[in-house]
Amino acid sequence: MSESEKGTGPKLLSGGNPQIPKGMGREPVEAYIAAMPEWKHDIGRRLDELILEEVPDVHNAVKWNQPLYGTADDSWFLTFRCFTNYVQLSFFRGSSLDPVPEKGSKHPEVRYHDIRRLEDLDEEKFRNWVRQAAELPGEKM
């Protein structure tokens, strides 16, 4: 059970997305993942593990109530967040990935991938996306 489910952690926003204060480094990302509710917590934990395995020197932050992963403190390639029925991955240069994540955005380069159950996570495809995304120019935020 996550901290937010116990009533001791951060407030959950719409869709169960944890409200985490903005911050740089691993600590706020770990707080975000710890506060992800129910089955979403397992997905967040596994995504984070895979990202750290593929990009060991990854930079982290939490902004806009979502964890960010990048190659520098101001250059981000990936984030994820909770929605009611899924956890959504956002690749800032997703249109350059192969294969291209299936869900488009109003921003032409951003692509999304939704995960509804941990069992649905194609770890090899995700690892491949992470490796590719980390090599592309990041999004400045």
Overview of the molecule:
- The chain has 141 residues and is α+β, with helices and mostly antiparallel strands.
- It has one domain: Aspartate Aminotransferase, domain 1 (Alpha-Beta Complex).
- The chain has four helices and six strands; from the N terminus they run αβααβββββα.
- Strands 1-2-3-4-5-6 form a six-stranded antiparallel beta sheet.
- Strand 2 and strand 3 form a beta hairpin.
- It is globular and about 40 Å long.
- This is YdhG-like domain-containing protein.
- It comes from Rhodococcus rhodochrous J3.
- InterPro entries: YdhG-like.
Whole-number mean pLDDT:
93
Instruction: List the secondary-structure elements in sequence, H or E.
Output: HEHHEEEEEH
Helix content: 25-40%
User: Would you identify the regions where 5 or more consecutive residues have pLDDT less than 50?
Assistant: none
Strand order in the sheet with the most strands: 1-2-3-4-5-6
| Gap from first CA to last CA | 32 Å
Strand content range: 15-25%
Number of strands: 6
The coarse silhouette is: globular
So, CATH architecture? Answer: Alpha-Beta Complex
Note the total helix count: 4
